[in-house]
Specification:
Strands 1-2-3 form a three-stranded antiparallel β-sheet. The longest helix has 17 residues. A hairpin with a 5-residue loop joins strand 2 and strand 3. The chain has 66 residues and is α+β, with helices and mostly antiparallel strands. The N and C termini lie far apart (31 Å). It is globular, with a radius of gyration of 11 Å.
């Protein structure tokens, strides 16, 4: 079962990503190390597979920079 958009956002905020705003249902998150990710969709929507992969890719980048 896919995760919800709110769960992806919670994971980003746990790793100190900051919400830089967005337009419509899009939210732009940026980490202090310069990694950016855009999450689209309403909080209760199921996350698309590409969104979950993008989240894993962003988290992997910040772990490699540490």
């Amino acid at each position: 079962m896919p995760r919800k958009i709110r769960e992806l956002i919670a994971a980003l905020e746990q790793y100190q990503f900051k919400n830089r705003g967005g337009k419509g249902s899009h939210r732009n998150y940026q980490h202090a190390s310069g990694v950016n990710i855009t999450i689209s969709g309403n909080l209760g929507d199921d996350a698309k597979p590409y969104q979950e992969k993008e989240l894993e890719k962003a988290l992997r980048k910040i772990m490699d920079n540490r």
